[in-house]
Amino acid sequence: MTYPRVEINLSLIKKNAMNIVELCYKYGIEVMGITKGVCALEPVVQTMIEGGVKKLGDSRIKNIVKLKSFGVNLPVYLIRIPMPSEINDVVNFADGSFNSEFEVIKLISQKAVENGKVHKIILMVDVGDLREGVMPEDVKDLVGKILELPGIEFEGIGTNVGCYGGVLPSIENTSILVEIAEELEKFYGIRVKTISGGNTATLKMVEEGVLPRRINQLRIGEAILLGTDSTNFRKIPNTYQNTVILKAQVIEVKTKPSKPIGEIGRDAFGNIPVFEDKGPMKRAIVALGKQDCRIEGLIPDEDHINILGASSDHLILDVTNSLKEIRVGSIIDFKMNYGTMLGLITSPYVEKIVV
Description:
By secondary structure, this protein is an alpha/beta fold. The chain is built from ten helices and 18 strands. It has two domains: 228 residues, Alpha-Beta Barrel (TIM Barrel), CATH 3.20.20; 108 residues, no CATH class. Strands 1, 12, 13, 14, 15, 16, 17 and 18 form an eight-stranded mixed beta sheet that branches. It has an eight-stranded parallel beta sheet with strand order 8-7-6-5-4-3-2-9. α1 runs parallel beside α2, α4 packs across α5 and α6 packs across α7. The chain is elongated.
């Protein structure tokens, strides 16, 4: 076998998808399955679909091209604001996209007309997280301009919280979307078909029954893939968390001091490390490093193993109290958070296995 490797449990991911789709369906909410966390890996995408997901979204146009290449016939959306340089692929491969800049939407309109297509637009509204989106007071005028463009279908509005500013979804900030949608409908005499109210972090409001009634779409990746909600630091009820497991191989085991010897400068990443002197400890190194993922998001499967730190290629562990015999060649399992999974799946040095 090849290491390091990520093993992805399709049956558990399917159960997660089914439970989340069922929860949202009770409240009239459509689940857009977000595939970027696994780089649109075909078996995982097909598992999401089998779990009941009716739309797909990804932040990378290359992943969307991949989705189309293996015959996905569900609507697929680009969820990151399109770059002007990728408009041709956006129009040709994505059924719709999330946008905030009129100049970009005009480019999409022009390319859609050239190619005889109609491209769906969801306009992002910034309700406080300060990532992408139009400020609420500017939405009405911008929608008026969008409605005049050929080759464009104004599908609705959306928002994002939690990913940049850490702002939690609330009744107040999600209600802003509903109020804007109703204002648009009254002013322009249109129907706002989609109100995309957030991501995995917003599921907590669904569970509590407090999400404003007209929010009818959530973009869900983490909850399906890992059964977790990083923003609210919790496990999603009725989901599994042992869906994606990292297996890394030990390449050195030695008893060494716990504090480096000599004058301390900066490490390879420009940081000044701080160490506590705990006396001699049994240390193991596994072949994995910061080049592969965010080490901070790794969780050893055994409670008695602790992560001491990492360089670009080496992950250093304290295995002094491990209940297992750790030796060169041993395999150590890790769970992970969403950010770490992104790195591992993206790394060309980590094998991906579906089970």
